[in-house]
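queue> holo job accepted (zinc ion)
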Amino acid sequence: MQRLRDSFTFRKSTTLKTAHEEFLKSLPKAELHLHIEGTLTPAQKCAIARRNGIKLPYESEADILAAQNYIGKDAAEYLKNFLAFYNEGMKILRTAQDFRDIALDHLRVCGAENVRYAEISFDPQPHTDRGVAFGAIIEGLRAGIDEAKALGVEAQLIMCINRDMPVDSAFRMLEDSKPYRDRIIGFGLDSLEEGNPPTKFLDLYAKARSEGYRLTAHCDVDQTDAVAHIRDCLDLLKVERIDHGINCVEDERLVDQLLERGVCLTACPTWRPSDTMPRRMDRIRVMHERKLKVTINSDDPGLFASGTLGAMLPAVAAEGRFSEEDLAQLMINAFEGAWLPRERRDAYVEEVRDYLAAWKRARI
Ligand code: ADE
Ligand code: ZN
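queue> job finished
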């Protein structure tokens, strides 16, 4: 079928500074924090809705784009407003083919941007609540991932709990996932953090851990009790990675703990159409300087002006004042944080090091 992404052009603000564009184009990249439902561009939403006979609450692609300037009086309200748009947009997904198409479309972009490895999060609960079979979601996503191997792109799946939904529903999701256990690498926690702290999920995480899932959880930016949530995710949920987690820089002891444990943090400097630069760069820069294993991620590339990883990196490089060595290190952090066998991780890291060395030699 025709690529659903074709008519989408990334919107770069003309005022954005960029750096190291040539170097970044072919740098081998990895992304660990990306929601497949957040890759849906206005064009994809319109095409899939048409195919499934669904009437969207928007008249045009332009109307969908216009709704993407998320605001809120504080970070909690901002996240709530963003999630309302995100949750509305995913309602068009009904069939295994829909999931296959959006996975493959995204991974095609990864191929074009030399994103060699992606860990893709997905949110089963809102889909199964609408009557979509768990199997259709997995079969579809896995079909897209398998087809993308021919493009030189490797991907794995992270199944996420919607933290604002009842815990029972997340236990059902874990039960539903049993026949597909070998097709899902990780278990995560996303959606609305306010009122849904990590302690709500102690038993769920213990069960997921006993089933051998690799564990991560969102600790979204500037939420209530942000630092305590990061600590609870580490100590109580026993996660290996933290999604976002950039409030860690407020607490020296926490930074030391993250360093000691080698925890990978998947930061997202995404920006909205009205932003003049990537957000959160000062803290990401501090995390990098403190030698935390911080990575750069697009989170929801169809829903932010920042777009996909390859598209956003030149502005992140400029605003973070990152050198080519720094940018290579950020990608090494991502490959080292990847839930891949040791040899695969080492091979990717070596590719990044070789690329940097060859780049420097060519410029002597
Ligand atoms: N779902 C998609 N993106 C998310 C984010 N940044 N935080 C929480 N839930 C999300
Ligand atoms: Zn996220």
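queue> The beta strands are 29-31, 115-122, 154-162, 186-190, 214-215, 218-219, 241-244, 264-267, 293-296.
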